[in-house]
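User: My collaborator sent over this chain with a note saying "see what the structure looks like." That's all I know about it. Can you take a look?
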Amino acid sequence: MLTEYGYPGFTYEAVAARTHMITMMSVQLVGYFRDTGTSFGELREALIPPGPATPFETIVARAVERGELPDAPRSPRVVNLPFDLLRHDMLLTTRPVSDESIAEIVDAVWLPLLAVPEAA
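Assistant: Without extra context I'll predict from the sequence alone. Here is the result:
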């Protein structure tokens, strides 16, 4: 099924290299958000225009094409959940997320959610 965390770069080494930078940027952005009355979500929307699929949307689409997942509607929140959980762990601990935690996010949380068609 989906292995190696779905796409290149989603490894412990890549996460470890970015953890400090992401944490420091987040701390710096707090002042910006306070001063402008905006949020992380609004900044993301401004920086990432709608259009191209996210890496996780691509992973899911390819798994559906291969017959590994049912062709069912899924919310963007479910599809992009692994990165949200990874970011959450990095921000709370200010440490790299372990391979074990990444595997748990994918295997115990994300894949079961993807395999169950959502209620209409």
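A starting point for your reply to your collaborator: The two ends are 26 Å apart (CA to CA).
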